[in-house]
Design the sequence.
């Protein structure tokens, strides 16, 4: 129960931060990405704050031997840049640049409105299903 409650509070804080910073507004995000046009640099402050919190948070957390509500830290073991990473990052960036949503803010924006976020969410889920199908097929072909 503590793990659930902790995750809920952290998720709520994250979502609140997304709303306050206007990251749930795709027009604000698109204005930030439009560096050749009517650029809105205000989201630089959001990124700066996120970097500062992350920098401090990592230093505090990794002084511990284990997380508060877990047996150990789950850290990525791979550090290589492969085709899957490049394709995924490219699709993420293209989607973010086209519509102004990425998954975190889009899920948060479901609470505050608009059909465009519903369409984005459906497209995101469809993309996840297609990706899972492709990866399963690749795994089956590799083992055959």
Sequence:
């Amino acid at each position: 129960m503590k793990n659930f409650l902790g995750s809920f509070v952290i998720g709520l804080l994250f979502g609140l931060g997304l709303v306050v910073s206007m990251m749930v507004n795709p027009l604000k995000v698109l204005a930030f990405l439009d560096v050749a046009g009517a650029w809105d640099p205000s989201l630089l402050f959001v990124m700066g704050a996120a970097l500062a919190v992350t920098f401090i948070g990592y230093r505090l957390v990794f002084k511990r031997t284990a997380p508060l509500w877990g047996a150990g830290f789950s850290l990525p073991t791979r550090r290589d840049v492969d085709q899957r990473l490049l394709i995924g990052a490219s699709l993420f960036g293209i989607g973010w640049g086209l519509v102004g949503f990425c998954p975190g803010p889009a899920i948060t924006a479901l609470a505050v409105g608009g059909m465009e976020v519903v369409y984005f969410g459906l497209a995101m889920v469809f993309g996840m299903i297609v990706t899972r199908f492709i990866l399963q097929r690749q795994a089956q072909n590799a083992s055959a």
In short: The chain is about 70% helix and 0% strand. The chain has one domain: 2-143. The chain has a mean pLDDT of 88. The longest helix spans residues 115-143.
